[in-house]
UniProtKB/TrEMBL annotation:
Pathway: Amino-acid biosynthesis; L-methionine biosynthesis via salvage pathway; L-methionine from S-methyl-5-thio-alpha-D-ribose 1-phosphate: step 1/6. One of its GO terms (cellular component) is nucleus. It holds the Pfam family IF-2B. It catalyses: 5-(methylsulfanyl)-alpha-D-ribose 1-phosphate = 5-(methylsulfanyl)-D-ribulose 1-phosphate. Belongs to the eIF-2B alpha/beta/delta subunits family. MtnA subfamily. The gene is MRI1. The record marks C162 as: Transition state stabilizer. This is Methylthioribose-1-phosphate isomerase. Catalyzes the interconversion of methylthioribose-1-phosphate (MTR-1-P) into methylthioribulose-1-phosphate (MTRu-1-P). Transmembrane segments: none annotated. GO terms for biological process: L-methionine salvage from methylthioadenosine.
């Protein structure tokens, strides 16, 4: 099943019932290699090792891997199938802690199997497939809303962080989906995007998406964004995705997002969070309760990539990991940070755009589907 409108080279998740393959994002942009994910163990590994990443994609790969797994098993009864699925969903939830989408999907899928009175496996697989379709539809709605909202602000350039595009979702993307819509709507002059150390989701993945689609774009160092805003008045907004939005609007996203929000506030630019409602955790009162994943210090004391000679040669790519920091140095590597709601101009969801008026406590829907 392919997301309509997503270029074939950008399809991170391929589901052809009952077979799941994923694009190994550790090899992008230099090598496009699909890996079959047939079991929940393989999905767990793919998520932890970052072969697949991005909040919606993580949830989708977990859900569909289990669909592939149970499609190949013979259960003695519906109750046995139900027990198996419940256990595997709990296991998949232990892969990465911050993005709520995985937990939300697991909760919904558990409810499906709890309530199924016929064939439990079929009910589960059908529900996982519906999630894949809905994610694409939601992202397209977010793109439309975000582009319309940003068209009201002067300037034709935006800045984005991490990778929130087709590769991070079932297709189209959230924040990068807005950028896509702006480009299609003739509203985008240029998009700047950060390299997003240490995994370089920007330099590798967002760059790959933007180059593939011919969208005018410039890569900047994570540390160059304040200088960029000071220099270029046309950078009217920062547009980012979300891993978990708390009930008060505090937003966990890729580390570095918080400092982008501070820079945007200082320079008087809009700061937009793009998130499907599957990224919103109404059970979390504010951002202080969000568990921020800390990854291995080795991710920041080293740098990995392909040798320049092998990339230029075009075949027989050779990957290399280089030591940057001295051995024995201490390193702290939080994968996400939490941006306070007070720094967020608007949250764009598939249901519309939520804004907080100055002095107000909550975000209110300011534009809803009937308006467009
Ligand atoms: O560590 P990652 O690559 O999974 O982090 C991804 C992000 O932080 C994205 O901004 C977020 O998941 C939204 S993706 C639509």
């Amino acid at each position: 099943m392919a997301a309509a409108g997503t270029l074939d080279c950008l399809q991170a998740i391929k589901w052809e019932r009952p077979r799941l393959t994923i694009l190994n994002q550790l090899l992008l942009p230099h090598r496009r290699e699909y890996v079959e994910i047939a079991t929940s163990e393989q999905a767990h590994h793919a998520i932890v090792s970052m072969q697949t990443r991005g909040a919606p994609a993580i949830a989708m790969v977990a859900a569909l891997a289990l669909a592939a797994e149970v499609s190949g098993l013979l259960f003695a009864s519906n109750d046995e199938a139900r027990e198996h699925i419940r256990g595997r969903l709990e296991y998949l939830k232990t892969s990465r802690p911050t993005a709520v989408n995985l937990f939300e999907a697991a909760g919904r899928l558990r409810a499906v199997v709890d309530e199924a009175d016929g064939d439990v496996v079929k009910a589960y697989v059908d529900a996982a497939e519906r999630m894949l379709e809905k994610d694409v539809a939601d992202n397209k709605a977010i793109g439309k809303w975000g582009s319309a909202f940003l068209s009201e602000i002067d300037g034709d350039k935006v800045l984005t962080h991490c990778n929130t595009g087709a590769l991070a979702t079932a297709g189209h993307g959230t924040a990068l989906g807005i950028v896509r819509n702006m480009w299609q709507d003739g509203q985008l002059g240029h998009v700047f995007f950060t390299e997003t150390r240490p995994y370089n989701q920007g330099a590798r993945l967002t760059a790959f998406e933007l180059v593939s689609e011919g969208i005018p774009a410039t890569l900047v160092c994570d540390s160059a964004v304040s200088a960029l805003m000071a220099k270029d008045r046309d950078v009217k907004a920062v547009v980012v995705g979300a891993d978990r939005v708390a009930a008060n609007g505090d937003t966990a996203n890729k580390v570095g997002t918080y400092q982008l929000a501070i820079a945007a506030r200082f320079h008087g630019r809009a700061f937009i969070v793009a998130a499907p409602s599957t990224s919103i955790d109404l059970g979390m009162r504010d951002g202080s309760g969000i568990v921020v994943e800390e990854r291995s210090p080795a991710e920041i004391t080293t740098a990995s990539g392909f040798t320049v000679a092998s990339v230029a040669g075009g075949s027989g790519l050779e990957s290399e990991t280089l030591q940057i920091a001295p051995s024995g140095v201490n390193a702290w590597n939080p994968s996400f940070d939490v941006t306070p709601a007070a720094l967020i101009t608007a949250i764009v969801t598939e249901r519309g755009v939520f804004v907080k008026q100055p002095g107000a406590d909550a975000f209110d829907l300011c534009a809803a589907p009937a308006d467009v």
